[in-house]
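Minutes, project check-in
Item: structure for the 164-residue chain
Input as provided by the requester:
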Amino acid sequence: MLKNSMLAAVAITCSIVFVLSAEEPAPAVFTAAQAEAGRAAAMNTCAKCHTPSLEGRVGNPGENPPLSSLSAEFQKFVSNPARGQNAGKVPPLFGPVFMSHWEAKTTKELSTSVCGTAGAFFPGTDERTGLAITAYILQLNGAKPGSQELSMSTAVEIRSLAAH
């Protein structure tokens, strides 16, 4: 009897530990269609400076496409000595460097940054396009799409979006 009681107690304890240790699924804050629209928009906007791979620029002369292929306005901005150690560099939009900067921030902060930057460099870029680009960037960094579109009021910590 004591042996059966102890086995039951161990089984219950293991079940509780298993249930408590199960991770919550990552929130899904954008749709697949939104991210796909963002991919197309990013190739026509962000990719000009961040490169088509969106890996950014580190200032190497052999980077493709070459800095000289950018418009004079973009070349001037990227190469501006006033940018100090960032002259000639453009940060990546995915990967460890991106995540180290953005993981503790929210989707709202990223959306605001993307919409502001895209609008500044590509006048006429609307909020919907900026949000789609943000959805694509989140997807590149491991977030999974869901059934609800990303909005300017969506404020979820970016690190929580990576698939577990």
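Outcome recorded: Confidence is low (pLDDT under 50) at residues 15-21.
No further action items on this chain.
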